[in-house]
Amino acid sequence: MTEWDVKKLRILRTLRDRGTVTATAEALLMTPSAVSQQLTNLAGQLGVPLLEAQGRRVRLTDAAHLVLRHAEAVFAQLERADAELAGYLRGDAGQVRVGAFSTAVPALVVPAVRLLAAGDRPGPEVRVREAEAAQAYDLLAAGEVDLALSLAAHAPTARDPRFALLPLLADPLDVAVPAGHHLAGAPALRLADLSREAWIFGGSGPWSEITTAACEAAGFVPEQAHSAAGWTAILAMVRAGMGVALIPRMVSASDRPRDGVVMRVLEADRPHRHVVAAVRQGAEQGPAVARVLAALEEVASTFVKQN
After folding, report:
1. Which of 173, 206, 214, 274 gives 20 to 30 Å between its CA and that of 102?
2. Which residues contact 281 (CB under 8 A, 6 or more apart)?
3. Residue partners of 12: CB distance under 8 A and separation at least 6
4. Cα 294 from Cα 165, distance rounded (Å)
């Protein structure tokens, strides 16, 4: 029977995800030569070539991809075993490391932690790590967090065997306009009414994509007058009359804009962004992770009802 070495299989999977031996070594705190030696040993154990030269780099062979397709099921089963063992040893307490993008921390994670603390039995210890939406899956795959909150726009394909995805909510997008803007009090405001306005959004990343997609769905390409990634900076520029911006309801609900900014609901267009929770495949069955997920779902459903 072929010998399957889980440690070496994890190295092979990391190489697939990271792309180079050097990046794999950095992620696993190994030397590049140790990574190469471990993969050479694995190829000898399995009896198939796993890597082939591609210029100065290496690429995975078809046999390596076949091996990893089967290995993913092994990894998922090991995650389930770890979760079940943790539940046996610690009950449903334990520690859950949560990676979340900035607006999800006050709107979802903090209320979920409070909900767990208010229960009649001890809840898991939640450790929070703020991370960009696109970075969350890298942290999850690397084992640096146990649960990630991100945006569906950055989620891997649903067929990705590494992760289990749970949709949490569709976060409405409202438009922020200066208080003295001629459309601040206009009835039934639509995105198309703002097609000639100066827009404020990030130069790249999820918010650039979300703003551009929402405006294009309304029939126009937004003119980007200013670029900013932080909501404090964006709202400050709106307040100063420098432009308009789409703002997630999660932002305005947790940090109400101050005087000088009017938030308008776009009832006709109903733009939104999808927030998802992700865990490594199999880990969702662990008692501690399951309780945190349940708390996040409850907070998300309350958020939807209130907004």
Report:
1. 214
2. 72, 75, 76, 79, 161, 162, 163, 164
3. 39, 42, 50, 60, 64, 67, 68, 71
4. 14
pLDDT of 77 over the 60 cut = yes
Does 181 or 4 have the greater pLDDT score? 181
Determine the straight-line distance between the first and last CA of the chain, rounded to whole angstroms. 58
Q: For residue 261, give the nearest of 272, 274, 271, 251 by alpha carbon.
A: 251
Residue 137 near residue 148, CB atoms below 8 Å: yes
Give the contacts of 210 (CB within 8 A, at least 6 positions apart).
Answer: 151, 153, 173, 246, 273
pLDDT score of 295: 95
Give the C-alpha separation, 101 to 133, whole Å.
5
CB-CB neighbours of 303 under 10 Å = 20
pLDDT in tens, 211-255: 999 999 999 999 999 999 888 899 999 999 999 999 999 887 766
- pTM value is 0.69
Q: What is the pLDDT of residues 253-272, one digit of tens each?
A: 766 656 799 999 998 899 99
Are the C-beta atoms of residues 254 and 103 closer than 8 Å to each other? yes
* DSSP-assigned beta bridge partners for residue 150: 276
Q: Which of 138, 204, 169 lies closest to 277, judged by CA?
A: 169
The DSSP element (H or E) to which 54 belongs, if any, is: strand 51-54
* Spatial separation of the C-alpha atoms in residues 259 and 269, rounded to whole Å: 25
